[in-house]
Amino acid sequence: MFENIKIDDFKELKNIAINYYNNKKDKLADEYDHLIVYSIYDINNKFPSLNLFYDEIGRAFLSLTPEKPTKYMSSLYPTKIENNEIEILKKEYENLAKKYLKKTNANISMSICQSPLIIPTFYAKGNEYMLKKYYLSEKLKGLRYISLHRIIDENLLDLILKSYNTWYYKDIFTYYSLNDVHMVFDIPEELDIKTLSIELGKIAKQYLIKNNPIFLDSYKIPDMNIKKSVLMVIKTKVWNIKNIDIESIKYDIFDKIKKSYFYVLDMFK
Length: 269
Known about the structure:
With 269 residues, this protein is an alpha+beta fold.
């Protein structure tokens, strides 16, 4: 992935980043770490963002993240950027999205990110010193953001990009944020009374979490852009999904929900 991207060839982006930092450094708090980032992202968040990070001396790494990094950490002095080198990155981004049949409306921004640096990363390449420094820091803190990509193999990355923020599985919407994937279960279409279905969904969620410790409680949020009522929402860590039979879980839950639903209706005939 991104074999055509040679970070060391981006001389102009490197110089712009260093100069931008130097122009702003007197306004930056010394007690924080900072990175300059170029972000290419879909304005509708239908595909992960591609980000090129530079430190103050021009070392750099590339990161594919859920949403743009400014979603998770402080972003200072954002600005627009246009030049031929950033267009190369944008073209690579758009080509990858097309490979996964994703229609994107790409935007480009530049800003200075301030620590704590929270950069959940599906894929990374670049300066080994920088990356290893962040791996060690996260290991000591018990975190997995930049280092997340180290446990994402090719097959898992392929699944993430296919299922990113879409109804990839029938009746299940998968939404990626930080190092989590949220699974939104639709209400089975034959269940007409939504309020009863939602109440049964609450019980089903607790049953699922109790019997599967890798699942945690979650809820529908505006960023998911799902207007209709849903049965339930759970989440798990991204690295778990390759070991989960999501379809089997859905069939088990739907079977229990339907039996309970019609049992309740029969009780009040």
